[in-house]
Batch of 4 targets.
Target 1
Amino acid sequence: MLGVENLTVRYGAHTALEGATVRFEAGQFSAVIGPNGAGKSTLLKVLAGLLPDPQGCVRFDPGHTPRQCVSYVPQQQTLDWAFPVTVWDVAMMGRTGRLGWLRWAGRADRQKVASALEETGVYDLRHRHIGALSGGQRQRVLLARMLAREGHLLLLDEPLTGVDPATQEGLMALLRRQADRGRAVVMVTHDLDQARRWCDHLVLVNRRVIADGTPDEVYTPHNIEATFSVSHLGHTHAEA
Ligand SMILES: Nc1ncnc2c1ncn2[C@@H]1O[C@H](COP(=O)(O)OP(=O)(O)OP(=O)(O)O)[C@@H](O)[C@H]1O
């Protein structure tokens, strides 16, 4: 459905990912896990088609191009929340991004946006400026934009960050439902426990793919040690 083969990404002299091979399937909820600087966001950006001409192969479902089928949810803190738009506007960007510049949003688009905002619990906030939202509310708005887009491949970069435990549960359940409906869901997270509970596919990354499989296959002391304790660059990641 979606994957990379022998992927290497360098930023100048720094190698962020080396020889990474991994597949993500429709109907699967996958978590990409690793310490800070492990190359997780880099992998997601490659899958989203945001890093031009990576070294290695990026494979998609035949007949789909990344732009048509991917919904990418970046890390919340990388976005400009002072931008003068409302919750509704942001969710609508999920639709207009699909329509291109030549078509205006129609009634069906408005209905999709309304139901996406309802599903993520922020419909009542639809007229509010995005700068006036809490961290958890912002994350829900990003998810509403993702749902409104109706992509087959959902890529989320640390969607649990800054979200309270109750909201995290709702959010994970929502993503699980998306996978159960046949979408491929790939989430970058630092939360191993949530990933083990909700995901059926874990990928441990530390510049390379350390392990890839079901939670039971992947979650071993050896793999956790290899991923979090000592990086392949030879220094420890104390923050992880
Ligand atoms: N645009 C860039 N230019 C130069 N180096 C970069 C760039 N983007 C990322 N890097 C470096 O590449 C490495 C991997 O970064 P990446 O953001 O993929 O890691 P990550 O696993 O998502 O980390 P975190 O958990 O901290 O978000 C890091 O060492 C980072 O400093």
Target 2
Amino acid sequence: MASERRGLLIILSSPSGAGKSTLARRLRAWDDRIVFSVSATTRPPRPGEEDGVDYHFLTESAFKKEVAAGGMLEHAHVFGNFYGSPKPPVRAAIEQGHDVLFDIDWQGAQQIRNSELGLHTLSIFLLPPSIAELKRRLESRGQDSAETIARRMQKSWDEISHWDGYDFVLVNADLDETEARLKSIVTAARLRRSQQPGLTEHVRRLQAEFEDGGTP
Ligand SMILES: Nc1ncnc2c1ncn2[C@@H]1O[C@H](COP(=O)(O)OP(=O)(O)OP(=O)(O)O)[C@@H](O)[C@H]1O
Ligand SMILES: Nc1nc2c(ncn2[C@@H]2O[C@H](COP(=O)(O)O)[C@@H](O)[C@H]2O)c(=O)[nH]1
């Protein structure tokens, strides 16, 4: 089939610490057609985070300027900081036939589903196996202060309460199993009829072959 498919916008959301970034890394390592949308944020970098790789770290005024100029596909205020997905890299990746992966909260997911780009979205919500395990994961990550962890735990239900708006919901208990399920979901989404624009042509060719007596 000759025609190029249009890329998918793959959205991962979850309460903080449930495993989005970990699984996003695994998805990207699996298939280089998946391009990660590097978000902009006003939160300070964590140790080891690189500007332009993990996030684009912006001042609040630079962030607001970007939003005012229409440069964000979506944006939200999360845990006291601004976060947003810059539009130009998403457009460029889609034009090159890539899928774009977003690690964003429910507000951003909602905005992307309703965005003017009119692209196909695939949204997946990750649930933690328990609230106690969520806290353990945030603590074991070892990158946030006790105060930050407490704030994120306090907001965890707010995020979880939006689970119902997603195409798929996975309980991220065993990491390898969740990874395998995610890959299956992406594979299946790429096989949707709407994602295979050459299908109609292919069926027409089969019909022509059939009518030309190509059957035994
Ligand atoms: N299935 C799992 N089992 C055990 N530990 C996990 C699992 N998934 C992720 N983790 C660990 O939990 C911690 C938090 O994961 P991660 O940073 O990916 O969460 P996140 O959802 O991206 O968080 P945030 O929203 O704050 O960015 C990490 O230390 C990660 O290694
Ligand atoms: N709406 C958006 N949410 C985003 C974006 N980038 C990240 N996030 C979400 O923020 C929290 C906290 O992230 P952290 O890196 O500070 O732990 C998490 O839920 C992310 O999914 C974005 O561009 N838009």
Target 3
Amino acid sequence: MTLTLPSPASPLKIGTRGSPLALAQAYETRRRLGAAFDLPEAAFEIVIIKTTGDNQALIAADKPLKELGGKGLFTKEIEEDLLSGAIDIAVHSMKDMPVAQPEGLLLDTYLPREDVRDAFVSPGNSSLAKLAAGAVVGTSSLRRRAQLLNRRPDLKVVEFRGNVQTRLKKLGDGVADCTFLAMAGLNRLGMKDVPATAVSVEDMLPAVAQGAIGIERRGDDSATAELLAALHHAETGQRLAAERAFLAALDGSCETPIAALAELDGSTLRLRGEVLRPDGSESIAADETCAVEDGAALGREMAANLLKRAGEGFFDWR
Ligand SMILES: NCc1[nH]cc(CCC(=O)O)c1CC(=O)O
């Protein structure tokens, strides 16, 4: 089969949300595809798609995200455009992606993973350990909230929603003493002047798939599949297979504090997983190794063990 390359006359349509981070990820995808096949920028068209999650009025209403459309909040419209053929590929932060995709779509191409760690961001404090008793933390992440309260029950957590820029603005306005962001987002946005310090994964285990970009396509689009095969980073795929199997087996909704990180050392995969009570009062963690190809099985097994240890009602709110 001969490879059909996109061209300025027939560009590959790259669908993305319009936030600065989403755009940076779409540009990185365009750059990597261009480099792999020696194509000009005009061989690609970036198509910005507004999702329910981008509707400021809805988001500002401060309703739980679950009530606003749950898992598909930032992806539904993009996946509809992919299925209809309005776009050819969609670029996503894998951290935000449900474990299963709609019928007809495949999400199995991953770019090399960025820094997986969370960043502690505070204009007045150099590290989490130096944060005064009772300090105010702004975050909308259930995982970060539960992990923080687990280690520092003295801290006060306030809701902090919006994109990276919005949250930094709130911090500047003094709404909170510090916040947490993904290092990957800061790096991709080139935000070097932000007062950020990376938090070790021992102190704060990251979200499943944090730092990874995934590219989605139609299952029957073999021309696009061939293009994407040149971009796929196998190691990132193996790591995400373990982490996403763990998440899937926990039935992780956006309402459950879950963390996981898979790392490779030669042909060995190490998977760390953690589930927490939403109020941080209890954390259950595991740390296991297996052969790289058994990562997904280990993820499922670890999830089953943690659920058993957690028992009934563990994830109930307070
Ligand atoms: N939920 C929003 C989101 N989705 C992906 C990233 C960062 C980039 C990444 O983890 O790949 C962020 C922002 C953040 O957590 O600071």
Target 4
Amino acid sequence: MSSLPHWLVAVGVLQDKTGAVLITQRDLKRHQGGRWEFPGGKVEPGESVLDGLARELNEELGITIGQTQPLIRIPFEYPECRVTLAVIRVQEWQGQAHGRENQPLRWCPISELDVQAFPAANSPIITALKLPPFYVITPDCGSRAEWPAWLERLERVLANGAKLIQLRVSLPPSEQAALARLALECCHRANAELLINRNAELAEQIGADGVHLSAAQLNTLSQRPLPDAAWVAASCHNTDELAAAAKLGVDFGVLSPVRPTSSHPHAQPIGWAGFGRLAAKAPFPLYALGGMSPNDLASARQLGGQGVAGISGFG
Ligand SMILES: Nc1nc2c([nH]c(=O)n2[C@H]2C[C@H](O)[C@@H](COP(=O)(O)OP(=O)(O)OP(=O)(O)O)O2)c(=O)[nH]1
Ligand SMILES: [Mg+2]
């Protein structure tokens, strides 16, 4: 156990009508001085995270917060202290947000949030803001005769608004590459991103948006298989796999099975309580998987999850 001081920090994410996020600049003289941050501060003894957030946002921005939703919880160790950032979306507030402590303030479009300008603990917040609520996994696909129906189903899922897709098919390599190219075209036409299950080389070769690693691959890799600009995601089932994924520097993960599923009948479900407990320890956004439907989004988000992942019911 580290002897460094530990702070629980309530952090607020406010978005305007265009989706731009409120960021403020930290005073030069303070920890992480000069960096941009999401407004908030240390939760005081006896305070809940929401009480702390309400007090900090009133002190720093002069607003009164209304409805909120957890975004992500991030444990992080700086050389001089440990922090747990409890990051909360503030969906409603009263008053005009202004720099009450004369701190510079701006509304920044998500696409312009530059990881470098923030404290190191913040990159998962930026990832969480970029990732959509649903992560759709493709069903398996067989011979070429089945491809048109499979692609039609993908088109339906995309027409329904899916923005992040994982290609998971067990085909011979050349067939997989051919189907992956077709799937990628569909996804990009719909302004959606495609990750390739397990195969970073194929992802790179066809210009896909990332790779989705299996839990088994986490222990065989010593570094991220793709550069920072591409997504690297991973399947996790327990604390050890989450730790291995964090060590590798994945962008996000999928935790399963939350509920029993017919695809893995012998796996012990972790339930929503297990999901919430593990999500709070993972320093990256996590989707809930296993018996999920889009209707489960609110449960996943309430527990600080990014959203839900699944094969059926999303298109
Ligand atoms: N508010 C905020 N703090 C962050 C972010 N990222 C990050 O690593 N931190 C760290 C920096 C600090 O070590 C700690 C937050 O403390 P703070 O300085 O804002 O606390 P505070 O508002 O209560 O200020 P103070 O009274 O202690 O001066 O968390 C972020 O996005 N927002
Ligand atoms: Mg503060």
